[in-house]
Design goal:
By secondary structure, this protein is of the alpha/beta class. 39% of the residues lie in helices and 17% in strands.
C-alpha cells in the first residue's frame, strides 16, 4: 500500500489540462471503477466564474444543519489538499484518500489515454461520497468539458456569477464563457442562475435552457441591511438572513443557494430556522477571511477583475481595511496590471511575492509596476520574508491578496506572528 505522500505524488504528476477536451477520459476511468457516478446519488451541480465555492459551501452547510449527510466537492484547496473532499464539513482522512488514490491508480492502468489531475481527483470524489444523502459538486473549470459534467441528471444545475477568466480555455467574451458554463444544463433539469449576471450571460443561459426544456430561475435582487467585518445581513423575498462570509456580493451568492434549496425542499425538507442557521454558519477560507483582529489580518483569493473589484469595494467602505500593508502575488494570465494599480494605490506598503507556479508573475516585475502607485514597495524572496516585513511595517491592517494559490501558505506564515 502506498503512503499518503505517495498518493499525493501520484495525483499531482498528472497534467493539469489535456490537449483533447472532452469527457471520454473520465468516462473510461469511472467505467473501470464501476461507474460510481451512476449510483443514483442526488447531486447539485455548480458552475460559475466567481462565487461557486461560496455557494457550494452555503448549500452544504444548510443541508447539514437540516440533518443530512452531505458530500461537498470543491476546488482549489487552500491549506490542505484534502479540503476538496468533505462530508458534513469534515475533510477526508489521509488513510482513506490514500486507499482511494490507489484504487484509481489501478484502474488507470487499463486506459488508453492518461487522465488529467482533475479527472483523477473527480474520480476519487465520486468514490468517497458513496453513502451520502446528497452531493454538492463544484465544477473545476468551465462546465461543458469539465470532469464533473459526466453526471447524468442532477437535482439542479446552478450557475453563479459569470465574468472573464480562463479565457485561453473558455473564450474571450462573456457569451462564449457563458456557453461553456451552460454545458452543465441537462434536459428537463431545473437551472438556477445568479441574478446579477450580464444581459449576454443571461441570454446565453436562457437559450441553453430553452433547448433542454430546463426551467430557469433567475435570482431576484437582494436588499442590503449591513455589510461589515462581522458578515453580511440582507433581506431576500421578505425574509432576513445573515451570512458570516464577508462582502456585499455574498448576499447575492446566498440568494442562489436559497433558490436552489427551495427548489429541492420537497425532497430534502428543512425549516426556515435551519436555512438561516446554515447560511450563518457557512465558512470558506480566503474569501475576505479575517485571521486576526490585533492587528487586523485579511486573506483574499480574488484573482480576476470581478474578484478584485469585490475586494476594492470592501476596502473603500470598511475602516478595518484602511491604510493597509498589502502582500500581493498573481498569475501571468490574470489581470495583474489592473490589480497592482488598484491595490498599490490604496496601500501604505506593498510587498510582492511569487507564488510557486511556472505561470506566476515574479515578485520583482510586480514591484516595478507597483512603484508607480505606492511609495513603499518591496519585492520579497519568500512568503516568510513578506510576513515578517508586513508585521514589522503595519500600522493599519495587513491584507494578502491576488491568488488562491498564495492564500494558504502566506496565511500560515502570518499566523506564526499572531
Amino acid at each position: 500500500m502506498m503512503t499518503y505522500e505517495q498518493a499525493l505524488d501520484y495525483i499531482h504528476r498528472h497534467n493539469a489540462h489535456s490537449a483533447k477536451p472532452g469527457l471520454h477520459r473520465i468516462s473510461a476511468l469511472l467505467e473501470q471503477l464501476g461507474n460510481p457516478h451512476k449510483a443514483g446519488l442526488p447531486l447539485l451541480h455548480i458552475a460559475g466564474t466567481n462565487g461557486k465555492g461560496s455557494t457550494a459551501t452555503m448549500l452544504a452547510s444548510v443541508l447539514k444543519e437540516a440533518g443530512y449527510t452531505v458530500g461537498c466537492f470543491t476546488s482549489p484547496f487552500i491549506y490542505d489538499f484534502r479540503e476538496r473532499f468533505a462530508i458534513n464539513g469534515k475533510m477526508i482522512e489521509k488513510e482513506q484518500l490514500t486507499k482511494l488514490a490507489e484504487q484509481v491508480m489501478q484502474a488507470e492502468q487499463f486506459l488508453d489515454e492518461q487522465p488529467t489531475e482533475f479527472e483523477i481527483v473527480t474520480a476519487i470524489g465520486f468514490l468517497y461520497f458513496q453513502g451520502c444523502d446528497i452531493i454538492v459538486l463544484e465544477v473545476g473549470l468551465g462546465g461543458r468539458f469539465d470532469a464533473t459534467n459526466i453526471i447524468d441528471q442532477p437535482l439542479a444545475s446552478v450557475i453563479c456569477s459569470i465574468s472573464l477568466d480562463h479565457t485561453e480555455f473558455l473564450g474571450n467574451t462573456i457569451s462564449e464563457i457563458a456557453y461553456e458554463k451552460a454545458g452543465i444544463i441537462k434536459k428537463n433539469c431545473p437551472t438556477i442562475l445568479y441574478g446579477k449576471n450580464t444581459k449576454e450571460a443571461i441570454e446565453t443561459i436562457q437559450k441553453r435552457c430553452d433547448e433542454c426544456s430546463s426551467p430557469l430561475t433567475l435570482c431576484a435582487p437582494t436588499e442590503p441591511i449591513s455589510c461589515d467585518i462581522d458578515g453580511t445581513s440582507f433581506r431576500y423575498k421578505d425574509q432576513d438572513y445573515f451570512v458570516s462570509l464577508r462582502g456585499a456580493h455574498q448576499a447575492d451568492n446566498a440568494a442562489v443557494a436559497i433558490e436552489t434549496l427551495l427548489l429541492i425542499r420537497d425532497r430534502f425538507p428543512f425549516t426556515q430556522e435551519q436555512l438561516q442557521n446554515g447560511l450563518a454558519n457557512a465558512f470558506i477560507p480566503s474569501r475576505l477571511e479575517c485571521i486576526c483582529k490585533e492587528p487586523y489580518i485579511f486573506i483574499d483569493g480574488g484573482h480576476n477583475k470581478d474578484g478584485i473589484d469585490m475586494l476594492l469595494s470592501a476596502m473603500d467602505q470598511w475602516e478595518e481595511l484602511k491604510n493597509p500593508t498589502i502582500i500581493f502575488g498573481m498569475m501571468k494570465d490574470k489581470p495583474y496590471q489592473y490589480a497592482v494599480r488598484q491595490l498599490a494605490s490604496r496601500a501604505k506598503t506593498f510587498l510582492t511575492v511569487q507564488p510557486p507556479l511556472p505561470r506566476a508573475m515574479t515578485a520583482y516585475d510586480l514591484k516595478n509596476m507597483a512603484d508607480l502607485f505606492c511609495d513603499d514597495c518591496i519585492a520579497c524572496d519568500s512568503y516568510k520574508q513578506a510576513a515578517k516585513l508586513a508585521m514589522k511595517k503595519q500600522s493599519g491592517c495587513i491584507l494578502a491578496a491576488g491568488s488562491l494559490y498564495l492564500a494558504g501558505e502566506i496565511a500560515k506564515e502570518l499566523k506564526k506572528f499572531i
